[in-house]
Amino acid sequence: MFILELTYTAPIERVDALIDAHVEWLDAQYAAGVFLASGRKNPRDGGVILAAGVDRAEIEKIAAADPFSVEGVCAYRITEFYATKTVDGIAPYREELPS
Fold it and tell me: How confident is the model at residue 99 (pLDDT cuts 50, 70, 90)?
């Protein structure tokens, strides 16, 4: 599982100009079953995405395709972790620790 933390690197006006394209990109990743949750940070200096079902190379490729990345208005920090405990709603994404 991955936590993708976005931090804006451009004025919010540039971010807002790309928000529709960013939401389309998000929707495509939800439809593909990769994104589980997402939203703005508070204060509004970026966002957070919870993702699963792909490997690190694929999640990096997905992040690079975000219109925010393509247009250089955010930086991504990607953290991989083992979701060994979850609420029942995302139980299919539970993982075992590697041996």
Answer: confident
